[in-house]
Amino acid sequence: MLRLxxxxxxxxxxxxxxxxxxxxxxxxxQMRGAATFRYVGVSLYEARLYTKGGAELNWGEDFALExxxxxxxxxxxxxxxxxxxxxxxxxxxxxRDRLEVCYQDVxxxxxxxxxxxxxxxxxxxxxGAPVCTLRYPQIKTRFMAIFLGDNTRSKSFTAQLKxx
Length: 164
Description:
Elements: H1 2-25, E1 29-39, E2 42-52, E3 64-69, H2 75-89, H3 96-102, E4 111-116, E5 121-126, E6 129-135, H4 139-148, H5 155-161
Antiparallel strand pairs: 1-2, 2-3, 3-4, 4-5, 5-6
C-alpha cells in the first residue's frame, strides 16, 4: 500500500512539471484535448494538444503537442514512421537528417513536446530538456498534420485530441 501511495505521489508531482514546461514555452497554454493512439489494439502513446487559452485549434496560431510514450521505441522507428507519414500525406520532405538529431530512443513514460514558433519552426523537448529546433518551410503544418490534420490514421484520435 505504501508503494502504491509513493507511485501515485510521484506521478502527481511530475504532472505540474510538464504543464509548467508547456506554459513556459507557449504563453497562456491550456490543454485543449487528449487522446491515446493505438495500433492494432496496442497503445503506443498518449497525446495532448495545448492552445492559447485552450481555444479551438487555429493553424495560424502557435500551439503545442505533447506525446507521452507507452512503449519503448527506437529513434530509427520514430524517424521512419514520421517520414512515412510525411509521404502518405503529401510530398516527401528532405528533413530525415534533422529528425535524426531531434529524435532519441524513448522509453515507456518519456515525453516529447513540440511547440510551433510560426509556420516554419518547431522546437522539441524531451522530458523537459530542449533537444532541437527544426526549421523548414511549413513544417508546423506538415508535422502537426500527422496528428491533427484531415488525413490522419485515426479520425477518432484526432477528434479527441482537438477536443471535439
